Amino acid sequence: MSSDDRPEAAEPHDVGLLSPVSILVADAVSDAAVVERMVAAELALLRAYVAEGHAPASVGAAAEAVSVAIELSALARDAVPGGNPVIPLVALLRRQVAAVDDDAAGWVHRGATSQDILDTALMLLCRDVAAAIEQQLARAIAATAALAERHRDDPAAARTLTQHAVPTTLGLKAALWTRGLVRARAELARVAATLPAQLGGAGGTLAAIAERIGVDAALELPRAYARELGLAAPASVWHTDRAPVTAIGAALAGVVSTAGVLASDVAQLARTEVGEASPASGGGSSTMPQKANPVDAVLVRSAALRAPSLLATLQLAAGLAVDERPDGAWHAEWPTLQELLRLTLGTAERTAALAEGLVLHPERARANLDATAGAILSERLAIHLTPLIGRERFDALVADAAGARCAPASPRCPRQPNSISTRSSTRAATSAWPDA
């Protein structure tokens, strides 16, 4: 058959069409990325046996020399009978290692179980994706910190329950975004540093390993395995103790929710009638060419709506991880954790783009601040007038004044001075940031 007669390769069924928040980073958390870590977990076990003196050096050499080629669709189909992709992967890997060193092939997967390899692979993926998320968050932090410094003395109306409350500054709002991102990034880094390898054997007892190399050596092997992978040494087997999964899930969801606050604020401030913020470039409409939609903010908000349910699934699965190996709860974690990783990485990248292109408009913030003709200062006035005329009389006077306040565009609306307390609050917030 000539090259012209061959059918074109079919596109993948799912290319992320309906998840634009994560499409630009999808490859980092793809099935291919998972399989790459599964192979790494298997080969690291070979190296751990060599490092501890239980396997000949030729086994380690074979692990370094083998070039693993895997057809993902075939692997996925072959995973169905056994219920997980490690089973067909091990058979494939043994054949490919045997092509390099037939004796080394006998050491592939020795003493391990499918959950050991897949759990370890997912921890590797979580560690690597967390590092990429941290990089994107660093971009966002630098951008929001710059906004806080630039607008630290620009007055604006603080809103509580959607209504004007007291004066604040645009800088303080940006400072709070920054503090939230710094905190979420630090928590993700802390959890990522604790992600453990998994090596317990069929029932979590290391029995098959101990039978071959002795009990003491078997107890040491998981630590050697973790060192080969750059993961934390497991305190014990965690086949049904899913704390590592729920911890990284919570840290990822925390990043998304923190970014969601920033995005929600921007979406509100970018409303036409508010006009206190605008992205550097907005997305258009299919029918209304005058629109400049805050698309990045919208996409991040969509992620903030999806992430909590993913975390809830991980928590639910953790609570149903029974016996020594879970029957379905473990399986439910795989796509859930993969999607949460993909969603968080996409959120971090879109948040960085949003923050770097964000423009705040002090003149619009000031005009909105003036909309209540000074009523926004009622809290400050209460401090001084209530002791003189009583709270009931003061509240009545403010209610009367608020009811008769002028329209924002009226020349009778006075410009209110910026308060010293508002400026000092912004400076206090920005001066206390930890290093990003």
What does this 3D model show about the protein?
The chain is mainly alpha-helical and 436 residues long. It has a domain at 23-145 and 176-256 and 284-359: Fumarase C, Chain A, domain 2. The protein is 60% helix and 4% strand. The strands form two sheets. Strands 1-2 form a two-stranded antiparallel ribbon. A hairpin with a 2-residue loop joins strand 1 and strand 2. Helix 6 packs parallel to helix 12. The chain starts with 30 loop residues before the first helix and ends in a 5-residue tail after the last helix. 42% of the residues are buried. Mean pLDDT is 90; it is low at 406-420.
String of helices and strands: HHHHHHEEHHHHEHHEHHHH
Question: What is the CA-CA span between the terminal residues?
Answer: 59 Å
**How many beta-strand elements?**
4
Specify the CATH homologous superfamily of the domain at 23-145 and 176-256 and 284-359. Fumarase/aspartase (Central domain)
Structural class: mainly alpha
Shape: elongated
Percent of residues in helices: 55-70%
CATH class of the domain at 23-145 and 176-256 and 284-359: Mainly Alpha
Mean pLDDT: 90
| Biggest sheet overview | 2 strands, antiparallel
Show unreliable segments. 406-420
Strand order of the largest sheet: 1-2
Number of helices: 16
- β content, as a range? under 5%
CATH architecture of the domain at 23-145 and 176-256 and 284-359: Up-down Bundle
CATH topology heading of the domain at 23-145 and 176-256 and 284-359: Fumarase C, Chain A, domain 2
Q: Radius of gyration over alpha carbons?
A: 29 Å
